[in-house]
Design a protein that fits this description.
By secondary structure, the chain is an alpha/beta fold. The chain has a domain of about 250 residues: P-loop containing nucleotide triphosphate hydrolases (Rossmann fold), CATH 3.40.50.300. About 35% of the residues lie in helices and about 10% in strands. It contains 16 helices and nine strands. Strands 5-6-4-7-3-8-9 form a seven-stranded mixed beta sheet, with helices on both faces. Strand 1, helix 4 and strand 2 form a beta-alpha-beta unit. Helix 6 crosses helix 16. The chain is elongated, with a radius of gyration of 50 Å.
């Protein structure tokens, strides 16, 4: 019974031998011998023909230099290097001063079996590229160019001739002052913003027959250059359609700047732009004051005409606060002056007392030539160059140019 139990215990022990300490698996000792694949690789390298080698470190898997290939063929099949040894290949002849670089230790056979080939060092190797040199520059490394400061483009002086009082010689002054500028060698554009088209007629153009006018520019955004006609000066013509422009522009965004936007396309081609405005303070006049940087106010030397100056000043103040802070009154021009009457002299005195130096020294006196010249479709300077009427506007042009140079 005892013997049978002992025999059964041995049987259980053999059946569960993996639980027995006596039969525990012992790892075989690691033998430091070359892996067969190393010998095969070296034999293949000896057979592969020579190819040009790039400058730089020798990568794993590249054929050895010619000196190594020749030596290996003479010495027979290559043998695996002993553990811890380094393979050194003769590169280009080193300079006498250069010291040889230390050899890189060769990894063991165990490391080679894991797929890591033994690196080969080359003497006097050139400077290597760093990975960051081969990558595209990041956004932080890109040189940011400073924005070039563009030289300011000189554009024309835009002068609006405005007074809501009609019959004060706005159109006559606009045309004749513009022609006087042209006589002095300046490039001038006249803009007829009055639906009556008197400025257009004064240059011999029938406003009822023009196909394109300022109405198309303001309402349909037609380029300004398409409506300019060339006479004594260049003129952007008007038509009776302008009478409906304010209603047509009522729903347009930025309607107050429509004229300014269109003038920007051409004002680099001119030295002066003279705008004739309608006798009102409506949307057309507001467009003119928004586009202008100067305002000349023709004033008939009478009480009713001077009263309109207060309303114009209030409108101009609103324009400065909301649309065009640079616009200012260039001067107040006494027109249709009759020096024979005491009333005219008193009117001029009132102007000078209230506005001081804003009142021009030049005076535009009454003359029949101003009524005769538009019949011929010409300015008074062309109709009668030697007349006193022509001299008045030449004097005014000199005064305006002096103000321009003094600023």
């Amino acid at each position: 019974m005892k013997a049978a139990g002992k025999a059964g215990g041995y049987a259980n022990t053999r059946a569960m031998g993996f639980l027995s300490r006596k039969n525990k698996f012992k790892s075989a000792p690691v033998v430091d011998e070359p892996h067969p694949i190393v010998e095969e690789l070296e034999e293949m390298e000896a057979v592969v023909p020579e190819r040009p080698r790039p400058a730089g470190p020798v990568a794993a898997g590249d054929p050895p230099p010619p000196a190594v290939a020749k030596a290996s063929s003479e010495a027979g099949p290559p043998t695996a290097p002993p553990a811890g040894a380094a393979i050194e290949v003769d590169g280009p002849p080193a300079m006498p001063e250069a010291a040889p670089e230390p050899a890189t230790p060769t990894p063991s056979a165990a490391e080679a079996s894991e797929g890591t080939a033994a690196p080969v060092t080359v003497k006097s190797e050139p400077e290597r590229f760093m990975p960051r040199d081969l990558l595209a520059p990041s956004r932080h490394e890109v040189a940011v160019k400073e924005p070039e400061v563009e030289a300011p483009v000189k554009h024309a002086d835009v002068i609006a001739f405005a007074n809501q009082k009609g019959g004060v010689a706005k159109t006559t002054t606009t045309l004749n002052l513009a022609v006087a500028f042209a006589e002095s060698g300046y490039r001038v554009l006249c803009v007829d913003l009055d639906p009556q088209g008197n400025l257009t007629m004064s240059q011999g153009i029938d406003p009822d027959k023009v196909e394109k006018s300022l109405y198309d520019v303001l309402v349909h955004d037609m380029p300004m250059a398409e409506i300019i006609q060339h006479r004594e000066i260049d003129i952007a013509v008007a038509s009776i359609d302008l009478a409906g422009a304010e209603i047509a522009m009522s729903t347009k965004i930025g309607r107050e700047r429509s004229l300014e936007k269109s003038l920007k396309e051409v004002w680099a081609d001119y030295d002066f732009v003279c705008i004739d405005t309608p006798p009102s303070l409506g949307l057309l006049t507001i467009n003119a004051l928004t586009a202008a940087n100067k305002v000349i106010v023709p004033v008939q030397c009478e009480y009713l005409s001077m009263r309109g100056l207060v309303q114009l000043q209030n409108t101009l103040k609103m324009i400065q606060e909301n649309l065009n802070p640079d616009v200012r009154i260039e001067g107040i021009l006494p027109t249709m002056l009759d020096t024979r009457t005491v009333h005219a002299k008193e009117a001029v005195e009132i102007l000078e007392e209230n506005f001081g130096e804003l009142v021009f020294k030049s005076r535009i006196r009454k003359a029949i030539k101003f009524a005769e010249a538009p019949v011929k479709g010409a300015s008074v300077l062309k109709y009668d160059p030697q007349s006193n009427a022509a001299g008045y506007y030449r004097d005014l042009a000199k005064e305006v140019l002096e103000h321009e140079s003094a600023q």
